[in-house]
Each structure stands twice: as C-alpha cells, then as structure tokens.
C-alpha cells in the first residue's frame, strides 16, 4: 500500500469520526435541550393529633388505621383512677361548703334563739330589781338615814346589771338575725369555689373519652391497648381528607411570574389524568434549601420556592403522598 493511499484512509477516518460527533451533538441538542422540564410535587392533607389533657392507660381503642370518623365519634377510652379519686374529694368539699353556707343563711337554731331570749329576760328582771333597790337607798340617803357608801354600792350594782342586760339583748339579737351579711357572702363564695373544683375534675374526666373533633381518616394509631400515655401525648393522627393540596418545590427561574391565585394544570401519574389547581401559597424555602449555580463560575444562584395549590374540583381517589407533575 502506497503512502498516498494510507494518507487518504486516515483522512477518511478522521472525517467519518468528525461527522459522527457532529451528528451526535445535533441529536443531543434537539433531544435534550428541547425536552420539557418537569416539576414534581406531592399531595398533602391537614392532619391533627388526638391527645388527652390527663395521663392514663389506654382502656379501649374504638378505631383503627384507615377508618373514616365523623365529628363526635368515640376514638379511644382511657382509664384514669386518680381523676375519679379527685372527683370524690372535690364533691365532698362541695357538700361541706354547702352545709356551712346553709347554716350561715339559716342562722342559729330555734333552741339557741329561745335560750338567748330567756337569758335576756332574766337580765331585765335583775335590772328592774337593782333599779328599785337603788331608788330606795337614794331616798334613805336623801333623808340622812343611809350612808353614802351604801348608796354608792347600790348605784354600782344597778349600773352593772344594766350593762349585763344590754349584753344579753345583743346576744339575743345576734342569735335571731343569724350570721352577718359578710359571713353569708364568704360562705357562698366557698360553695362557688368548691363547685368550680368539681367542674374542673369533670372536665378532666371528659378527657378520658376522646372523640373526633373533625371528620377525617385515621392515618396513624400510636399506643396499644394497656399502654400508658402522658399528658398531651398523641394517641392517633387523623387526616382531614377534605383539606387537600399539592406542594411543589420550584426554582425561581421556573416560576415565570407565578403568583397566588394563578391556575395551572398538573398531571397525576397514579390516575393518568390531569387536574386544574389554584395557587394559594408561595414562600422561599430559606438558606437551607438547595441552590443551583447558573454559571460554571458561580456568578449567581437560583433559589427554590415552595408552592402550594389546591385542586379546583374534587378528585376522587387522590391520596396523601401521591405524585403530581407539572410539565413546562
């Protein structure tokens, strides 16, 4: 083979390789650069956790994961004997306070009032005798028959019995009128306080029976029957299926003016269907989110935004965790 022929073969090989590289580059340009960018999101729902204000032992679980519950349905029953004991104490305190209040309102017993009246009458009789004795002694003193000392002794005895009569009258009036207004108010306040304690314990007892506050689907049940749960510990989670939305993480160069209230079309791979969605929330994901350098030398970065949107119409079968895709 001549040198010229060898040279021509090498030249043809180089031209062929170059042609293949160019063809591959053209195909890559049209196939890759023109392919649509995909934004993938996920279906989410509102969840609330069922928990009790009082610690107790799980006595019964009325529902299981996957059950649909309505408002007022019983979810779980707890056993809290300590709360029952506190209720008995509170009710006893209320009974005692009520008895004291009734006694204050009713006043003294009739026998006590009658005894106080008799003592007052006895004091009045003694005062009358002392007054007459003093007047006789005073006349004799005026006539010069009685000494001044005897007259002074009679006057002192009269004044003492007068004070005793007034004291007996006051005791009778107090027994007849009963407790003072302030004492009655204080006794009634004690009753109200005891009733408040009973109501508080009843509210705790109410917490031993957990009922659904919102209709939804039981997504998770945490404790087992017989296990202890503390104050505020979650017993189960309920997904509010009526409050469903999609969450998308979108780079700012893909937002293209998207704002709250805009409507776009998303694709559900699970059902091979499209659905219309309306944006209700847009917020940057902060410094912790993934940033993308737009230049090889990192001249500036693109931030990621969290976009939330709700379906415009009810989509049967759509569940939390399912994928949603937006194609540009």
Walkthrough of the structure:
This protein has 328 residues and is of the alpha+beta class. It has helices at 3-33, 81-106, 110-143, 148-177, 181-206, 252-255; strands spanning 38-51, 56-61, 68-69, 74-79, 209-211, 216-221, 228-229, 234-251, 263-268, 273-284, 292-293, 301-302, 304-311, 323-327. The strands form 3 sheets. Strands 1, 3, 6, 8, 9, 10, 13 and 14 form an 8-stranded antiparallel sheet that branches. A hairpin with a 7-residue loop joins strand 11 (292-293) and strand 12. The longest helix has 34 residues, at 110-143. It is rod-shaped. The two termini are 58 Å apart. The mean pLDDT is 78.
* Separate helix tally: 6
Task: Give me the count of strands.
Answer: 14
Which percent bin holds the helix content? 40-55%
Mean pLDDT: 78
Rg of Cα set: 48 Å
Q: Which secondary-structure class do the elements indicate?
A: alpha+beta
Catalogue the unreliable spans: none
Distance between the termini: 58 Å
What is the overall silhouette? rod-shaped
Strand content: 25-35%
Describe the sheet with the most strands.
Answer: 8 strands, antiparallel
Order of H and E elements: HEEEEHHHHEEEEHEEEEEE
Short overview:
This protein is α+β, with helices and mostly antiparallel strands and about 325 residues long.
Q: Which characteristics define this entry?
A:
328 residues; alpha+beta; 4-stranded antiparallel beta sheet; 14 strands
